[in-house]
Amino acid sequence: MTSDPSDARTLAADIRWLDVLTGAERDRAWKSLRFARADAGAFVCRQGERIAGWVGVLEGLVRVASTDESGCTTTITGVLAGGWFGEGTVLKREPCRYHAQALCRCRLAILPAEGFDALLASSLRFNRFVMDQLNERLSQFIGAREWERLRRPDLRVACQLTQLHNAVLNPRAGTLVKLRQQELADLAGLSRQCVNRSLAQLQERGLVRVQYGGVQVLDAAALAREVEAGHG
Fold it and tell me: b/e for 87-107, b at 16 or more Cβ within 10 A?
C-alpha cells in the first residue's frame, strides 16, 4: 500500500460521514485524512497486526476475511467504493481479527485513530453513524459463519450479493453492484465458471440481471429469503 496524495480528494468528495459533521469538524477531519493506493492482491491490513486507522474504499473492492488456527479462511464481506471498515478495531485499539485485501487496484482513505477519537468526542451525529456501522458489521460477522456452511453455489453467490447490497455498509452500491465476476468468485470462494452458472440461475429466477460492469439486484428481499432458506 502506497501513499496517494494526488487527486484522491476529488474521489473523497462523497465520503458520506463528512455530511454529518459541522463545518469546523469537517475541516479537522480533512486535515487528519490520509490517502493511499493498493494494487490487486495487496493487503490493506493483516490479521494480528495493528490497523492504520478507519479505512474507506474510494475506488475498487476490498475483501475482509479471517483465518482460523487450522488455516481455513472465511470471507466476512466485501467493501465496495463508499464503504468503510475497521471501526471496531480502532475503538478497541486491538490487533486486527481479520485481514483486508484489495481484489483490484484500489484507492483508499484512512482516518487515523486520533482523528477518529476526536470526532467521537465532539459529534453526536458521528457517534450515531459509527454505531450504525457497528450494528451492521456485527450482523455480517455472525452471518459469515452461517454462509460458509452453504453448499449450493447459487446460494453462496446470492449471499455475497446480499452483503454487497447493504445500504449502510456499501452506500454507493445501489441496485447495481459494480464488480467483475472474478471478484465475485473471490468473495464467494468459487471458480469464475461456477459463479457464471450461479448468476444465470439467479437471473432465471428473476432475482438479478447480469449487466456489463456488474450485477443488478432486482429483488433484494427475495434474494435474502433464498439465503435464509438455505441456512435452514
Answer: bbbbeeeeebebbbbbbbebb
Q: 214: domain range?
A: 153-231
Instruction: Give the pLDDT confidence of 142-191 residue by residue, as tens digits.
Output: 776 666 666 789 999 998 999 898 888 888 877 788 899 999 999 988 99
Query: Structural domain tally of the chain?
Result: 2
Tell me, yes or no, whether 140 and 39 share the same domain: yes
What backbone phi and psi angles, to 5 degrees, belong to 212? -65, 125
Distance in angstroms (rounded) separating the CA atoms of residues 167 and 224: 14
Compute, in degrees rounded to 10, the torsion defined by CA atoms 7, 10, 16, 19. 120
Grid coordinates of 154: 447459487
In this prediction the pTM is 0.88
